[in-house]
Specification:
The complex is a heterodimer of chains A (333) and B (147). Chain A has 333 residues and is of the alpha+beta class. Helices cover 52% and strands 16% of the residues of chain A. Chain A has ten helices and eight strands. Chain A has a six-stranded antiparallel beta sheet with strand order 3-8-4-5-6-7, sandwiched between helices. In chain A, strands 1-2 form a two-stranded antiparallel sheet. The N and C termini of chain A lie far apart (49 Å). With 147 residues, chain B is mostly helical. Chain B is built from seven helices and two strands, in the order E-E-H-H-H-H-H-H-H. Chain B is elongated. The chains are: A alpha+beta (333), B mainly alpha (147).
């Protein structure tokens, strides 16, 4: 059985899944809009929290946040469920599919056979929509792929019960009820407010623009502290977090700029168009940073020559983002 | 990023294209497919090369009789004893013991099957390690000097 589910390819898994689910349930919307309403943009650098022995650097809010917040702000009723028992988890999924409901699921990436081998790491914050089952295969709409894909049930079970950081524990989620009408402007404002707060007014110096400056400061010390090999690994990790599949480029900054462009229409505020342009320029700055960082990783330029410049680029990103989000905060007051 | 600047370079994504956000000539955002960006390929390749480097060390340790073949398969599957323990249900201290050649050699078939199934190999393959790391993550790209 297969649900007639319009699959659309997007940049980012969670906002893509959410947009596709909302679209199916009769609310046509873009990925950027969902990302913005869900307050997806963020920055965080936590040197003492290691993933694969590398310090955590993130350009977005934690997994699950975009779906929860976007649906909440739009007044959509959703159901989320986690499981202890894989058999029960599979039964519930099959039951929901039988009743004709597409189901969102959090999975690990490592066990998904349809992923290109080079992308199969132990990363457990991936999201996809299960839209049917044929024989022993699940049919899946994974928004980062061009077409829908098939996945043997055993592999999906492994992926749903992946272990380690952010273990999904078989988590599924689906839309229970759509509201009569949407209050789009206030949802958009709530999303923007959250991002402004996260980027400007965090109590800890690890997040927002302070987090970017922290990364810049610490980065200049890496060569002395870690030695060349580890420095390059740390640097490569930042590039991956910023540019890997699912960011839409520039650490989600382009995706957010697309949202601001849409928000300008919804809030009837042309000033947001200018801010969108600014956000695009910031994304370009991040791309410049990634470009130079990759040249360092490839040893086409030396650490000594380029680390000052890398730190300067990061500080410029931080300065520009501070200006952008301050301006954005005044626009939605 | 402008639409025409969306990179179409070599990627490690098996021909799968991914979506980038870029502005068109009239300033509107559009979704553009990207074949790959060398910057990303460099960073991704670096992560895999780190695993291969680790595998070389493990192979040397196994050859020298300091570690069991399990160490190789564990690293090949990007795991450490903690993660392997979570996946296998074997207590972490026991996983660490199984990394010792002598303990590993005495393991019962049931324990070996458990690990072999998890890694998707046969028990014979689990006991065996290759001469060189057999990690296949991507085809070789043509070295470009665009950077």
């Amino acid at each position: 059985m297969k649900i007639d589910f319009p699959h659309r390819q997007f940049a980012h898994c969670e906002s893509g899944v959410t947009a596709n689910l909302l679209n199916y349930h009769g609310f046509p919307c873009s990925e950027a809009l969902v990302f913005g309403i869900g307050g997806g943009l963020f920055f965080g650098h936590v040197p003492f929290f290691k993933i694969n022995f590398l310090p955590l650097t993130t350009f977005r809010v934690g997994p699950g946040g975009i779906f929860s917040k976007a649906t909440k702000r739009l007044g959509i009723e959703v159901v989320k469920e986690k499981f202890r028992d894989p058999v029960a988890a599979e039964k519930k999924l099959d039951h929901l599919l039988q009743s004709g409901r597409p189901v969102g699921a959090q999975t690990g990436v490592f066990w998904l056979p349809f992923f290109p081998p080079a992308y199969r790491f132990h990363f457990n914050g991936h999201n996809l929509v299960v839209i049917g089952k044929e024989g022993d295969d699940y049919l899946i709409s994974d928004p980062i792929f061009e077409e829908t894909v098939r996945c043997p049930s055993e592999d999906l079970r492994k992926a749903r019960f992946a272990k380690g950081a952010l273990a999904p524990k078989g988590k599924i989620y689906y839309i229970e009820k759509m509201p009569e009408h949407f209050d789009l402007p206030s949802a958009v404002i709530a999303g923007i407010r959250e991002v402004c707060r996260g980027m400007l007014k965090t109590p800890v110096p690890l997040a927002g623009v302070r987090g970017i400056r922290l990364l810049a400061r610490r980065m200049t010390r890496w060569p002395d502290k870690l030695g060349e090999k580890k420095t390059l690994l740390y640097l490569g990790h930042v590039i991956r977090m910023q540019e890997e599949i699912g960011t839409g480029g520039g650490g989600f900054r382009f995706l957010y700029a697309a949202f601001l462009q849409e928000a300008a229409g919804i809030l009837e505020n042309d000033r947001l168009l200018e801010l969108s342009e600014h956000c695009t320029q910031i994304g370009d700055l991040w791309r410049d940073f990634a470009l130079l960082a990759s040249r360092v990783c490839k040893k086409r330029v030396t650490i000594e020559d380029s680390f000052e410049e890398l730190a300067q680029l990061l500080n410029r990103c931080a300065d520009e983002e501070e200006i952008l989000f301050n301006a954005l905060a005044t626009e939605i007051k | 990023m402008k639409k025409e600047d969306v990179p179409q370079e070599f990627g490690l994504n098996d021909g799968q294209k991914e979506v980038n956000y870029a502005v068109d000539s009239s300033g509107h955002y559009t979704l553009e497919q990207s074949a790959g960006w060398e910057v990303k390929t460099i960073a991704l390749r670096q992560a895999w090369e780190a695993i291969v480097d680790q595998l070389v060390l493990e192979l040397a340790a196994i050859k020298a009789g300091r570690k069991s073949p399990l160490a190789y398969h564990m690293v090949k599957n990007q795991m450490d004893p903690t993660l392997l323990s979570q996946y296998s249900g074997v207590a972490c201290w026991r996983v660490k013991r199984h990394l010792k050649p002598k303990v590993f050699a005495r393991l019962k078939p049931a324990a070996l099957t458990l690990y072999a199934d998890l890694f998707g190999v046969s028990v014979e393959q689990l006991r065996d390690v290759p001469e060189q790391p057999d990690l296949e993550f991507a085809e070789e790209d043509v070295e470009t000097d665009s950077l």
